[in-house]
Amino acid sequence: MIVRPDIKPVKDLFQPDFDTPSVYNLSKEDLINLMTEWGEDRYRGSQVFEWLYSHRVDDFDEMKNLPKSLREKLQAHYSIEPLETLVKQESVDGTMKFLFKLRDGYTIETVLMRHDYGNSVCVTTQVGCRIGCSFCASTLGGLKRNLEAGEIVSQVVQIQKALDETDERVSSIVIMGIGEPFENYNPMMQFIRIVNHDDGLNIGARHITVSTSGIVPRIYDFADEDIQINFAVSLHAPTDEQRSRLMPVNRAYDIEKLMHSLRYYQQQTGRRISFEYGLFGGVNDRKEDALKLAELIEDLKCHVNLIPVNHVPERNYVRTKRDDIFDFLETLNHQGINATVRREQGTDIDAACGQLRAKESKEETGS
Ligand code: SAH
Known about the structure:
The protein is an alpha/beta fold. Helices cover 33% and strands 18% of the residues.
């Protein structure tokens, strides 16, 4: 029996504080509660939810079956402004990258990936990131602020609206864009509840994946949630020495602490864990690394996603050669570890893992 240790909890920092928060912050239950608080009938909450997620309107005035006074009240208290699309780029493989402007001028990137099994959106949870991984572009400018739940939801709504034109739907979500989702934990969980709701976008929990760099106290929290979403951990190295060099977060939560939290997660949920392992030439891609990795995770029900390092101009990691990638894979497989090499998408538009960045700050745009 693995026991949850008594460790210092982490808080969600850098929350925005808008006078009129996004209406997309509210779950269906929140909307129903709001209506009862305002002395309205409960069903008004369901109507608003339907306008937002089935009809996907972006103006309270379009919510035709609501009394004008209620539409005005909503307008006065909440913002429905969707994100402003500044740039939409399409890759030769169909991957699309969206640059969105937030209400306070910051910009974030969101990616739509096309697979034969459906359309997947890679959402951003923070403006920038403060984790400081030495290979990643998202962390270069530090963290400006967390996103509201509604700003994460809006990314999916906006992309769904783009897909509406061709009668397609968003079928899965990966919480793997800019930022560390476990440093914006409560809004992230709220986001999941909203997009998961079957009267709304109805994205099944099993089609949602969250990835963390290893914020251990939040892994315990996540293990105790009653939700069936997929869980990925950016591991990238089998020893503390290597991992701390690649990911400074390892100095706060080392591999032993991380593994304990993952064993607890597996005990609580019974679910498989995905490990992301970027192959950085000469750093963590030798046979002995593969053997150590296999030994480290052998007691977990898991899968390893090998990611050939993506080029980030400010970073000078080199890619492991193709043959060596497959040798690494074979070593893992031979040790009984389930592993695959991640298929790359959107590299020509800098939309691949680790290439996303918060483009410019509020000050720089002057808005
Ligand atoms: N902060 C979360 C979510 C980001 S997911 C996390 O760290 O898990 C994006 C994945 O891409 C992570 O596994 C990240 O470590 C990886 N990544 C970052 N930069 C990369 C690069 N240059 N090449 C390949 N993968 C990279």
